[in-house]
Predict the structure.
Amino acid sequence: MAEFIDKIKEPAHLRAVSEDKIPALCEEYRAFLIKNAKTHGGHLASNLGVVELTVAMHRIFDSPRDHFIFDVGHQAYVHKLITGRMDAFSTLRVPGGLSGFTSRAESAHDPFGAGHSSTSVSAALGFATADHLAGRESYTLCVLGDGAYTGGMIHEALNNCRPDLPLIIILNENRMSISKNHGAFASYLSAVRLSRGYRRLKRGTKSFLSHLPLFGKPLAWFFLRIKDFVKRILYSKNYFESLGLVYLGPVDGNDYAAVAHALTEAKEMKKTVVLHIETVKGKGYPEAENQPEAFHSVSSGGEKERYYNVFAETLIAMAEADEGVVAVTAAMGLGTGLSAFGARFPQRCFDVGIAEGHALTFAAALAAAGLKPYTAIYSTFLQRGYDNILHDIALQSLPVHLMIDRAGLAVADGATHHGIFDVAFLSHIPGISIYSPATFGSLRAILKSTENATAPVAIRYPNASESPLVRDAFYADGVYDNFEIRADFANESLLSVLFITYGSIAERVLEAEKILKDKGVSAGTLLVEALAPYGECAARIRPYLARAERIIFVEEGIKNGGAGMILANLLSKTARIEIAAIEDNFAKPSSICDLYDFVGLSAQCLAMRALRLLGK
C-alpha cells in the first residue's frame, strides 16, 4: 500500500499533504503509472512527464470550480487519480470503463472531452470567456505538449486570445523544442522574470515615475523603451509576447517547487499567461526516457506484424523502382509505418506535424506536380481533413492515395478514435475508389494495381494483424490477383444465409457462419475488398443474391450513409438486404462490456440475427 496516494480521493486530500512530502508522493504516482501500464497498457511516457505539474495544479487551483483542460487528454492520468478515479483505474481503456482521455460524462473534473490534438486553447478560451461574461471568478488552465503547436487550431485560438482573462496556457515542452530560449542566460532570465521582487520592482518603478510631476510620464516611457531595447538585445521578444500575452518560463517542469512558484505567479496576475515548462517525457522510467515515442502508448499484448508494416514495406519496394513515389504523414510516422520509409528515403518522406488538412492539400499539389503521394492518416484524424479531400483532391481528380490506418472500432481508445465514419463520408464524394483489404496479400495487390491511378484512391485497414481464418477462407490458393470480391462457398451453392462484408469484421462474420452451420443452417460469406465505385461493386455482388434465402450486409462502420445502405439501394430491385452495422451512435458504452456485443457485431450477435430472420 502506498503511503500517500491511496488516501487521495479528491483534490482537497492532496492539498492537505505537507509540502515536504510532495516529492515522495510524486514518485508514488509514477510507480503506480508504470505498474498499471505494464498490466493494462495505456499512454505512459506523456503521463510520467507531467506528474509534478498535475500535482501542483491541483494544490494551487480548485477543480472543478477552476477548469483543467488537457490537450488530447492522454496526459491526464494523474489528474484522473487525484480526482477520485483510482479505484476504477484497472478499467482504463476498457469499453464502458474509464476513458483513456478526458470525458465530460466521466467526471465533473473533466470540463471538456478530448481525443484529438490542438483543441485545448480554443476550449480553454471558451470557458474563460463564459466565466468572464457570467462574472464567475474561476481560472482556466490548459495543458498541451509542444507537438500540439504544429496544429493550426492552436494558432487560430492564440490569435483570438484576449489578454485580460484568468487563462493560463501551459506549454509542456518535452525535448521537442519550439523555442530558441535555451541555455544559461535563458535560465537566469527566466528566474529573474519569475521573481516576485523583480515584478514588484518593475511595477513600482513604473508607478513611481508615472506620478512624478512634469517629467514623470516621459521618464516612465523612456524607462520602458530602454528596458525593451536591452531585452531585445539579450532576449528577443517571443511569439506569445508579440500577441500581447504574458510569457513565463522556461521552468523545469519536473521540479515541483519551481512549477508551483510559476503557477502561483500566473494565478496572481489574473491575465492570459503562457507558462512554458520543460519536462522529461517518460520521467522516472529509464526505458521510456530513452525511447519516449515507443512508450507513448504501451500495449499489454505482444507485438505482431500489422497492416501498417506491410504497407510501409510494400511502399519502400515501390519507391525503389519509381522515384515519383513519395509519402506524407501528419505526426504519425511510427504509427503509420512511414518512419521506416523515411529512414530509407528521407528526401521523399514528409511529416507535416499535427496538420491533417495541410497534409492532404500538400499531397494534392504533389500529385498535381506529377508525383505519386501516399498520405497515411488514421481514420479518426482523416475526419479533420474532409474539406481538403473534397475540394483539393477529389474535385480536381488528383491521384492521391489516402492510406487510412486504424479503420474500424478502436476498442481501447474508444469513441474519439473509432474509425467508423470514413467509408460513409468518402462514399459521398464523387470519383474516389475505396478499397478495404482483409489480408496482407490483398493489401499488397491493391497497392500494386492502383500504383498508376489517375484519380483519388482510398485504402483502409485496421490496426491489427492478418487473420489466418480470413486468409485461409478466401485466399487458400495464395493468389491475390482477383481481390475485388471473394466467396467462401462453391458457385452452385444454395444458402439459407449469405453474409456480405468487408474489412476486419470478416473474421467475426466467418465465426458467425460457423455457429450457423453447427446449428444445421447453410451459410456463406462474400468478402468485398473493392467497395467504390459502387456500381461496379453491385454488379459483382448481384449474381450471388439469387442463391440465398436471407442476405445480411455486415459493416464495422456507421450504418447511415455507409456501404451497406448504398449497395442495398443499388441492389433493391434484385433482393432485400438486411444491414448489420453501427446504428446512429458513437459506439460509446456506459458500462463494462464487449464492444462488438454492444454494437451488435460479435459473432454470436450476427448468428442470432440470422436465426431471427429465418424464424428460428
The chain is about 45% helix and 15% strand. The chain has a mean pLDDT of 89.
